[in-house]
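ugh ok so i messed up the first submission bc i forgot one of the chains. this is the corrected input, ALL of the components this time, i swear. 595 residues overall. if the numbers dont match what u have on ur side tell me asap before i send this to the collaborators (the ones from the other lab, u know who)
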Amino acid sequence: MIEVRDLKKSFVVYRKTGTLRRDRTIVHAVDNVGFSVAPGEMVGYVGPNGAGKSTTIKMLTGILVPSDGVVKVAGLVPSRQRVELARQIGVVFGQRSQLWWDLPLIDSFDLLRHLYRVDVASHRAQLDECVERLELQEFLSTPVRQLSLGQRMRGELAAALLHRPKVLFLDEPTIGLDVVSRSKVREFLGVLQRDRGVTVMLTTHDLGDIEHLCPRLLIIDQGRVIYDGALAALRDRFEPFRTLVVDLAVAAPAIVVEGAEVVRVEGPRQWLRFHREHTSAADLVARVAQQVELLDLTIEEPGIEDVITRIYRGESSL
Amino acid sequence: MTTRITARRSLTVLRHNAELYRHLVRARIRAQWQYRTSLTFDAIGSFFLTFIDFLVILALFQHFPRLGGWTLHEVAFLYGVAGLGFSLCDLVIGHIENLGDMIRLGQFDTVLVRPAGTLLQVMASDFALRRLGKALQSLTVLIYAIVVLDVHWTFAKVVLTFATIISGSAIFASIFVLGACVQFVFIGSSEIANAFTYGGNQFSSYPVSIYGAWLRRIFAYAIPLGFVAYFPTQYILGRTDDPLWLQLVGPVVAIVAVGLSIVVWTFSVRRYRSSGS
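and heres the new structure output, hopefully the right one now
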C-alpha cells in the first residue's frame, strides 16, 4: 500500500555569516529512506525532533515533492497525482486543524462531503459510525473553537475518515490529550485497523501509542531509517539485559551468583542484572534461592522509552 | 468526438468547482453571521472611512476646476467604477494576502492534501462581508455620478460599464494572486503586494493623465491599471483622450492578466512543494 525506495529530500538553507554574507548549505532531511507497508498494516514511525519524520509524511501525502527516489501510495505517485491521491488518503496533523474553526463540528463534516464529493447516503453511514465510535454526539453542534482538545482530535479523526480512505496518516494524533481521550483515540484506531483493514502510518512521540497499536516500528534518525521491525524484537536487540529484583528475609551483602551481577542494594532488597539470552530467569532464581531466603521477587523489563532514548542518543548501536 | 468528451469533462469540473466554491463561501458567510452586530458596524465603518478618499478628490476640485482634463463628475464616475471593481475583487480574493500566515501555520499543507484546486481553496477560505462597506460607498458615488452626468446611454455603453467593473475586478484579482506568489518565496512580504493592490486602487481612482509619463507607462500599461477604469470610462463618457481600441480592449486585458496569474500561481505552488520553505 505504501512503497518507498531510496527516498531523499534536501533543502537549501542559508546561514548568516556576516551582516550581508550568508552561507549556502544543503540539509539532507531525508536521506535514502526505504520501506514498504502492506495493506492493513499499522506502522509506528518514530524518531527525535528533526529526524525527518514530518518531511517523509509530507512526501507521502503529496505536500512535498521528493528530491530523489520512488514513492507510491495506493498505487499513485503523490507528487504528480496529488488530487487523485487526496481521495485515497486521510491525514490528521495533531497540531493543526482541518476543521472550520468558527462553525459547528457537523458543518465541517458537511463541507468535507462536498470537498471529497461523497454521496449523501455513503456519507451518512460513515458519519453515523464515526459519531457512535468516537462519541461525538454531544458536541456535534458545538463550534469547533469551543471544543476541548480531546473532543477536537476525535472530530479531526472523523473528518479524515469520512471519505473512506485506504491509507491514514496520523502525525502526533495524541499530542496534548488527557488520559481518557488518549485511550479513546487509541481504541478507535485499533478497531479501525482490525475491522476495516485501513493501512495506518502513525508518527508519535508517545511510545504508549506504539505499544498499544503498532506491531511494527520504524525508527528514523538524521534522515535515515535505523530500525524496521517488531517492537518486542527492538528490546531484545538493543537492550539485552533484564533485572531480577529480590526481597530477602534479612538484609545481606550483595549476592554473588553466576550469570548475574548485583547493581543495587537497598536494605533487604537487591537488584540483579542478567543477560536475557545467556541466563534464564528460572535458573537464576533457583541459584539465588540456594544461597539466601527469598520473600518475594519480580523481573523487570527495560522500558521501551529507555531503549529508544538510548538509541536516539547513539548509546546503543546496531 | 474526443474534443466533445474533453469539453464535457471540463464543463463538469467547472460545475463541480463552482458548486464547491458556493458551499465553502456560504459556510464562511454563516460563520460571520454569528457576529452580525460587529459585522454591521465594520461594514458601516468601512463605508464612511472610504468616503474620506472621495473627500480628498472633492478638496482637490476646490483648487482646480479640472483634474487631468476631467470634470469633478467625470472623476466621480471613474472613481465609482474603479472602486466597485476593486471592492468586489477584495471581497472574493482579498484575503489571499494572508497566504504567508497560511503557509506559516501549516494551513496550506491542509489545502494540499485535499482533492481540489489550491487557488480555489485559498479563494474560498474567506469572504469578508465587512468589505461590502467599500463596495456600497463606491456604488453610491457611481450612482451620484450617473445622475449628475448627462451621459447619452446606449446599449454598448451599458454593457461596457458592467464589463468594465467585472474586468477591473479580474485585473485586481490577478494582481492579488501575483502578489501572493511572491509570498511563497518571501513569507511575510504582503506589504509589497499591498503597494500594487491597495495602491493600485488609489492609482486607478484618478485620471491617468495626471501622472508623469514614466509612472503612466508602468502603472497604466505594464500593470494594466489603466484598463480598470480610465480607458473604458472614456468611451462611456464620450471622451477622446486615448484611441478607441484602447477604450474597448479592457476585458481582453483582464482575461490575459487572469491567465498569466493562474500560470504563475501554478508554477509557484510547484516550486513551494519542491522547496518546502
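quick check: The mean pLDDT of chain B is 89. that seems consistent at least. Chain B touches chain A through 25 residues (CB under 8 Å).
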